[in-house]
């Protein structure tokens, strides 16, 4: 049974599973697991306020933060765990990281400064003084593979590992449609006009709270002109001669692999 997000509940059961974070990393047991049974983490629960993530295989999954790391456990970086995660594990980890990040940034009301409280039955924080509610923040981004015949446009940002190229991506602005964001980002980053947008799929990317909306589009006009400071280099690539590509867990790689499958 797939992981599903359910309304949060208060009571914990013996069979529940727990994801714990310590200083921004995931707590990992001696055997490498990070979905801890209640029996293993009973002493740690005293440290942690828990939030329910959802249900997986009929069992509730919770997340909490611990300040002190006991002996016998260690931590692992979120990115490294995501690289090896199954789709369900990816969702659980992405949700755990995003919710704890959001909770840490919404301890006080943004309007009047009063300490916020959990709202029963909802994933939300409420202000007991003025009634303002805060919900987990999600930042939608577009990510797009631009095609020109058999070629695809891949670019690299200055932060990428040497030799790596990826699809174009950027945040959707307030008040902007998804489609307009795709056209704007492509023109801003590489100076190219596109059309015929095709939605492909989406992916949560918890660094810290992006929702990637993946598209394909067709080249219309313009010469590649990399945006200074954002794009170090951008080129048209054929399936036969590719640069270093993003890891297979990423939606950018999914878009690239999909293009390759259709081009060969
Ligand atoms: Zn308030």
TrEMBL record:
Cofactor: Mg(2+); Mn(2+); Zn(2+)
Cofactor detail note: Divalent metal cations. Mg(2+) or Mn(2+).
Motif (Nudix box): 170-191
Coiled-coil stretches: none
Any single GO CC term annotated in Swiss-Prot or TrEMBL for this entry: cytosol
GO biological process terms on file: NAD+ catabolic process; NADP+ catabolic process
Record keywords: Hydrolase, Magnesium, Manganese, Metal-binding, NAD, Zinc
Domain Nudix hydrolase intervals: 136-261
Family, per entry: Belongs to the Nudix hydrolase family. NudC subfamily.
Name of the featured protein: NAD-capped RNA hydrolase NudC
Species of the source: Proteobacteria bacterium 228
């Amino acid at each position: 049974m797939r992981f599903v997000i359910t309304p949060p509940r208060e009571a914990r059961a013996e069979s529940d599973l727990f994801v714990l974070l310590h200083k921004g990393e995931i707590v990992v047991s001696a055997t490498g697991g990070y979905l801890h049974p209640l029996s293993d983490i009973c002493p740690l629960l005293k440290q942690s306020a828990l939030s329910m993530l959802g249900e997986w295989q009929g069992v509730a999954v919770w997340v909490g933060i611990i300040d002190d790391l006991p002996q016998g456990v260690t931590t692992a970086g979120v990115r490294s765990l995501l690289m090896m995660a199954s789709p369900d594990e990816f969702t659980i980890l992405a949700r755990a990281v995003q919710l704890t990040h959001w909770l840490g940034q919404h301890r006080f009301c943004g309007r009047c400064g009063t300490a916020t409280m959990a709202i029963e039955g909802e994933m939300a924080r409420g202000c007991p003084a003025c009634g303002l509610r805060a919900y987990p923040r999600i930042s939608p981004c577009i990510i797009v593979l631009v095609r020109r015949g058999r070629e695809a446009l891949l670019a690299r940002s200055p932060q990428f590992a040497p030799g790596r190229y990826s699809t174009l991506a950027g945040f959707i602005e307030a008040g902007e449609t998804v489609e307009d964001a795709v056209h704007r980002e492509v023109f801003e980053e590489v100076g190219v006009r596109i059309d015929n947008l095709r939605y492909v799929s989406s992916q949560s990317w918890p660094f810290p709270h992006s929702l990637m909306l993946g598209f394909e589009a067709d080249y219309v006009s313009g010469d590649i002109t990399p945006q200074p400071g954002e794009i170090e280099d951008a080129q048209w690539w054929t399936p036969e001669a590719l640069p270093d590509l993003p890891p297979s867990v990423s939606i950018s790689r999914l878009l690239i692999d999909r293009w390759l499958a259709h081009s060969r």
